[in-house]
Write a structure and sequence with these properties.
alpha+beta; 4-stranded mixed β-sheet
């Protein structure tokens, strides 16, 4: 496995220890990848859009919600050391995670109107600018 040939009881122990070490390294590498490779889903971090409202519950006769994106993009990976903000890059692309619960009725500039269906549940509104920055708004429909 590692270029070492072992025989006998002690050799088998060495091989088992080597296999356990290799498995431990793989598990650790996988954990590091998951921690650094997954996004929080809340539009926070590198190149994130600030969506307002971030979360809203609609009930009864309420059928629509308007979402607005802030005019600046948070760039926490800014090598220049300035404020970490950059201008928003229009046009924005709006979408929803579950079209069975609702859709984007219309959008213009930094705003979009979400329209629910008659189904109840939780939907996520997703917005992206032209540089790939993302933001999210969550709609709970009761």
């Amino acid at each position: 496995m590692l270029g070492v040939v072992c025989s006998g009881a002690n050799g088998e122990e060495l091989i088992m220890k080597g296999l356990k070490l290799a498995a431990g390294v793989l598990v650790l590498a996988g954990a590091v990848w998951v921690i650094t490779g997954c996004e929080s889903g809340k539009g926070t971090g590198i190149n994130s859009l600030n969506v307002v409202p971030a979360s809203v519950t609609i009930t009864g006769d309420v059928k629509t919600v308007t979402f607005v994106v802030a005019a600046s993009v948070v760039n926490t990976n800014n090598p220049t050391g300035d404020s970490g903000l950059r201008p928003l890059s229009l046009p924005l692309e709006w979408s929803v995670a579950n079209p069975e619960l609702g859709h984007i009725l219309d959008s213009s500039g930094q705003r979009a109107t979400y329209m629910r269906t008659s189904k109840n549940g939780v939907n996520t509104v997703i917005v992206r600018d032209q540089y790939g920055a993302e933001g999210y708004g969550v709609v709970e429909q009761r």
